[in-house]
Every structure is written in structure tokens, then in C-alpha cells.
Design brief:
two-stranded antiparallel ribbon; elongated; about 170 residues; mainly alpha; Putative phage-related protein
Length: about 170
Amino acid sequence: MREFKDIASFARFIEDRVLPAVPRAVHRGVEDGAIRIRKATQAQLGQYLDGPESGLPTAPLADSTINERVRLGFTPDDPGLRTGDMRDSYGERVSGAGTKVTAYIGSDDIKAVVFEVGRLEAGNYQPPRPELAVAAARNEDKAANGVARVLVRTLSGRPLPNIPDDEDVTP
């Protein structure tokens, strides 16, 4: 534990070392949380989801979809997972360092968007499979705790860790 001989040396420590590091720490914590949620989303694809989150349990694949998957040489019953292209299209973007940092997690692949929210068209119905929403809900506390951890490190004058904490990703 760090000790200070007087209040002035403590104030200098806060001003010189801690306050300049806070924006970077917030960015790092939010970025690590976004990575956690993206990885959880990717890990869920190909599985049926069940749980208390909105939109669950996910619907089974239609017989016509299973037949098409088999005809095309894919496994019969892995929702959202054929070649892996959709899974690999997920990414994250994080705004710059600051005390207010925003993260965006998702995919620019239209198939991923339709997979998430579903489609209601005559003859082309697809039920929603809220992979990203579920991953975010299941990892919200861990992401928030990760931000808190890096802030505590910074406030105590310790450097940020070199590697993001990606243990215990909850798919």
C-alpha cells in the first residue's frame, strides 16, 4: 500500500499520476467488456439458446432449413453456423479514451441482423434468434466489473494490465 507523508504529496500523486490515466482506464475497461460480449455472441452461434432472457428459448430450425443445410453439405442442426462467415463478421468499435466511452458490438452482415431480429415476410418467416442481446445480458455484470477493476487499478496508481481479461466468457 502506498503511503504519503502529507496531503500535498497525495494531491500531487492524484493530479500527476491518477487523473491523467483515468480516461485511458475507462476506455480499456469498456473495450474489454465489448470484446467479452463479442466473443460470447460468436460462441453461442450454432446452439439453441434457453434461459430467462427475452426471446428465449430459440425456436428449432424448420424442416425445410434442415433439408437445405444437408443438401448443401452442412451439419443439419447448427442454427446460424454454416461456413462461419457470419460468426466471424461480428466485431466491436469503441470510442476514444475519456470519462464517457461508448462501445458498439455487432455485424455489418445483413444475415446476422436478420438472424438477430427475425423476418416476417409472407413465405419467408424467420424467428428472431437474439444472440447479441443475450450475450450482452449475460455478460453485463462481468463487463461492468471489468471497468471497475481497471479503474481501481488506476486509482491505486497501478498500471493497466497488458492483456484483456477474457476468462469466463458466458455464452
